[in-house]
Design goal:
- The structure is a single chain.
- This protein is 31% helix and 13% strand.
- The protein is built from 21 helices and 16 strands.
- It has helices spanning 26-30, 39-46, 156-175, 184-187, 204-214, 246-253, 288-299, 317-330, 342-349, 351-371, 386-398, 405-417, 423-427, 438-452, 461-470, 484-491, 529-533, 641-644, 660-677, 683-690, 692-699; strands at residues 56-65, 71-78, 81-86, 102-104, 108-115, 119-122, 135-140, 145-149, 219-222, 238-241, 263-267, 273-277, 304-309, 375-379, 565-570, 573-576.
- It has an eight-stranded antiparallel β-sheet. The chain has a six-stranded mixed β-sheet with strand order 11-12-14-13-15-16, with helices on both faces.
- Strand 1 (56-65) and strand 2 form a beta hairpin.
């Protein structure tokens, strides 16, 4: 068994015997004697498969409603999650967490108790239930909905008990630190080699392998941050130009915000380099040697350099958070918005506008990378939000290998997890001004690309849904920490600053107490083999495999730009700069806040629409093969209905029938309905039913 001995413990709240138990109010319920569970019901709770340290707090038989078919089962509340276990359903030992029936406490966004047709109470942390619920509705922050009804056959105390247990457990989960994840030593994978399904980029070897895969010959892996003393928000290793020494890297990174200096994000096979960097720390006073080192790192061996302010024309973090909250409120099943005004309300959330902005800017950056051999530097003050979003989208638009199932997971691990995106802060829902689901905005952008180019992507919409839901499940540390330093410290990865993982990633060294953490990429924790098969897009064209048509050689029109040309990309146009660094005698444009930058006239056309937006003496260039330029005007940007409207099953049909995956899903649903509604009759009765004389005799 995967989980060895499970430490289940039952903390059923104490009950008092009261002969006057009734349905008049909560006082009578609190003083009631809870019915003793039968052996079969107790076995049902045990079959839920508690994780190490998980305690079952309360449970009650119920009926899952709102979806076809309605399922009888048991609603269980633990100190980790709320789970519904259908009758007769056995949780697989290979899948201890269920993607369909489990709601992590941190994922519960709204909890409602219902009694009768009109009595509804919204239960917040610290609330006291005022009546015996006939039904509870658990709204997930991932747009899922769990609706469970309770029968009135002597189960009222248990219904009240499990509802209050959810309220209290949810309150306690918000006050305590998030889960530290599940370790391999606790999980006990007996038959596994221990090798992670996706390289976690926690070793020098992982980074060197990835560098060779990209063909970045002019770059090397730097170990200057191996002790996290340059930047705690960066990974222990990253790529810098070959000729830059680690001593120079340490000095130059100090002149950037949070120590996040310029480093390679992705190397294009035709020669261009995509870099990402924090904002210049203009209060520092570098010497001439540091200035030359900064310029050398930004140029990365190229004479043509383009600086891209990734926050320009993009929404703020507060804008993204507000749009997502409005979207969640609009997609609730009991939304007060009238049907004829729903689309205008959706437009009012501005969520789709922000998706459009991201796709447009990513398209323009892709053109910059492929139009000339150059260094394109993505610059953001913190280098932890839009830099990761745009860098990831650019690679999806340009690199066929990033569109594979392995490639998208490696991309997220490198550009988001290892790069220090603050998942816990952005998705924590702690009420701070720094909350913003930037990563979920990225997933929506990827879904838009999948809809527009269904044959280009190996992964399916169901994989994106699984990734979307995984950010709310604290069973691993992948999305539950802000930095690689916090993630490694919490897991005990580096008690000393020595390399922990060996090349085989199989077992820790003898005498080492390090626990290898499971990552979110261990999908078999939560998904069955049948579900994981749906991660693959059946419409993917095998001819679009990574090395089939993208030659790793520079095409004839990919030539260097003018000598020592420096450009600022802003508002869809290129503006020449005198120098890269803001500390020189004549401060560059980037030395001042972006709102003071000179703005060219805003154009509705992208760079591709403007013949790549290049100077006239460079001439026109054809679009390179393999470059995906998505549409982002009007109806080209669609609502991700299968994700955002999951709490409303009545509108799910037809939402993805334009793809092969959608057609297969529609066919399965129709076949299920056909089996449900077709009466089971014998062949003789079927013949009589079709006989014309029989039909006529029945109508007389």
């Amino acid at each position: 068994m995967w989980w060895g001995s499970r430490g289940q413990s039952f903390n059923i709240f104490p009950q008092k015997e009261d002969p006057e138990m009734g349905l008049s109010g909560p006082k009578s319920v609190q003083g009631s004697r809870m019915l003793e569970p039968s052996r079969r019901q107790l076995g049902s709770c045990l079959a839920s498969g508690c994780l190490p340290g998980e305690q079952i707090l309360a449970w009650a038989p119920g009926l899952r409603k709102g979806r076809e078919p309605e399922l009888p089962g048991t609603l269980i509340c633990t100190n980790f999650r709320v789970t519904f276990q259908p009758c007769g359903w056995q949780r697989s030992q290979d899948t201890p967490l269920s993607s369909e029936y489990d709601f992590a406490l941190v994922n519960i966004g709204r909890l409602e108790a219902v009694s009768g047709l009109s009595r509804v109470q919204l239960l917040r942390p610290g609330s006291q239930l005022k009546f015996i619920p006939e039904e509870i509705l658990i709204h997930g922050r991932d747009f899922r909905l769990l609706r469970v009804g309770f029968e009135a056959r002597g189960l009222e105390p248990q219904a009240f008990q499990v509802t209050m247990a959810i309220v209290q457990a949810r309150a306690q989960s918000s006050e305590t630190q998030p889960s530290g994840g599940i370790t391999l030593s606790k999980a006990g994978k007996a038959s596994s080699s221990g090798k992670p399904p996706i390289p976690l980029l926690e070793t020098l070897e992982d980074w060197e392998t990835e560098r060779k895969k990209q063909g970045a010959r002019g770059w090397r892996v730097s170990t200057v941050n191996e002790r996290f003393d340059v930047a705690t928000s960066l990974s222990r290793y990253f790529w810098v130009p070959n000729r830059i020494l680690d001593s120079e890297v340490r000095r130059t990174f100090a002149h950037f915000h949070q120590g996040r200096g310029p480093r390679l994000s992705w190397h294009h096979p035709w020669g261009s380099d995509l870099l990402r960097s924090g904002g210049f720390y203009t209060a520092s006073d570098p010497n001439k040697e540091d200035i030359r080192a900064v310029e050398s790192m930004l140029q990365a061996g190229h004479s043509d350099v383009v600086l891209v302010d990734t926050t320009d024309e993009m929404p703020s973090l507060a804008d993204i958070q507000l749009a997502h909250l409005k979207l969640r409120a609009l997609c609730l099943p009991d939304s007060s918005v009238a049907e004829d005004k729903w689309l205008s309300a959706l437009e009012g959330t501005r969520w789709l506008d922000y998706v459009r902005s991201c796709l447009r800017k990513a398209s323009d950056i892709s053109v910059l990378v492929t139009s000339r051999v150059r260094s394109v530097v993505l610059q953001e003050r913190g280098d932890r939000d839009f830099n990761g979003l745009l860098s990831s989208l650019v690679q999806l638009l340009l690199a066929p290998e990033a569109r594979t199932l392995f490639g998208i997971q490696s991309l997220v691990q490198r550009e988001w997890v290892a790069a220090g995106h603050p998942f816990l802060t952005r998705l924590g829902e702690t009420g701070t001004s720094e909350e913003a689901p930037v990563f979920l905005l990225f997933l929506d952008c990827v879904w838009q690309l999948l809809q527009q180019f269904p044959a280009e992507f190996e992964f399916s919409e169901f994989f994106l849904l699984a990734l979307h839901d995984s950010v709310r499940v604290p069973d691993t540390l992948t999305f539950m920490r802000n930095t690689p330093w916090e993630r490694g410290k919490r897991s005990g990865q580096f008690n000393s600053y020595t390399q922990v993982y060996t090349s085989g990633y199989s077992q820790p060294p003898a005498g080492n107490s390090v626990n290898l953490q499971l990552s979110v990429w261990d999908w078999d924790l939560r998904y069955s083999n049948e579900q994981m098969l749906q991660f693959h897009n059946p419409g993917y064209d095998p001819e679009h495999c990574p090395n089939s048509w993208l030659p790793r050689q520079q095409p004839s029109y990919m030539v260097p730009g003018p000598p020592s040309s420096v450009w600022l990309f802003s508002r869809g146009a290129l503006t020449p700069l005198n120098q890269l660094c803001p500390w020189q005698d004549s401060p560059s444009l980037l030395a001042v806040p972006s709102r003071w930058l000179p703005r060219p006239a805003v154009s509705s056309e992208s760079l591709a629409d403007q013949e790549w937006g290049l100077p006239s003496h460079w001439g026109t260039c054809p679009l390179p093969p393999g470059l995906l330029l998505p549409g982002y005007l009007g109806p080209q940007i669609r609502l991700w209905r299968r994700c955002y409207l999951r709490g409303r099953p009545e509108v799910q049909m037809g939402c993805s029938a334009l793809t092969i995956t959608g057609l297969q899903d529609e066919l399965s649903y129709l076949q299920e309905l056909l089996r449900k509604w077709t009466p089971r009759i014998s062949p003789e009765d079927q013949y009589k039913k079709r006989d014309t004389n029989t039909i006529l005799s029945q109508t007389r």
